[in-house]
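Recall that a protein's primary structure is simply its ordered list of amino acids. Everything else, from secondary elements to tertiary packing, is in principle encoded there. The following example makes that idea concrete.
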Amino acid sequence: MSNITIRDAAPSDLDRITEIYADAVRHGTASYELEPPSRAEMAVRFDSLKAGGFPYLAAVDEAGQVVGYAYAGAFRPRPAYRFIVEDSVYVAPEAKGRGVGRLLMERLIESVRALGFRQIVAVIGDGRADSASVRLHERLGFSHAGRLAGSGYKHGRWLDTAFMQLELNGGTSLPPDPDSWPERQFNSA
C-alpha cells in the first residue's frame, strides 16, 4: 500500500468523486444505478449528507489525487432507525487492490462510532460471497444479515443484494445514549 491519506471530503473533490462513481455505475455492480449521475446531482447528495452531519471521507494518494471515497448516511428515514447508518465506499479503478477501501472503511467505522451510532449496515450490490466488498466487510467484522436474491438486473444478469452489519457502542445490549449524536439530533427536532 502506498502513502494514502484519509481526510474529510471537500466540495473541491466532487469532480473526481463523480468520475469514480461514474466508473462504478458504468462498469460495476456495487451500485444499481444504470446511468451515472451528473456532477450537480453528486453535489446535492454530498451537501445533503454533510448538512445531516454524516461523515464523508476521501482517500488521497501521494500525488494529491482522490483515489476513493466513503460515506455513511441514514439507513432509512423513519426516526426509529436513527441509530443505524448505511455505508458506501468506492475506489478508483487504478487504486483497487491497494488497501484504499480498507483504509476508508476503518476511518468511517471510527467516525460513526464516535458519533454514537449502534449499527452500520452494508447493502452490497452483487453480494456474492467472493465479491471484494463482501470480503472487505467480513475482514472488518461485519456479519451477514441477509440476502435479496435477484433483486437487481444490470449488465445482462440478475444480481443478489447482500446485507451485512456491524454492531457498535454496545449495539442492542444497552439503551440509547442520550448524549449520542443520533439521540441529540432526534431530541432537537
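The helical segments are 14-27, 39-51, 100-115, 132-139, 181-188. The chain has a mean pLDDT of 95.
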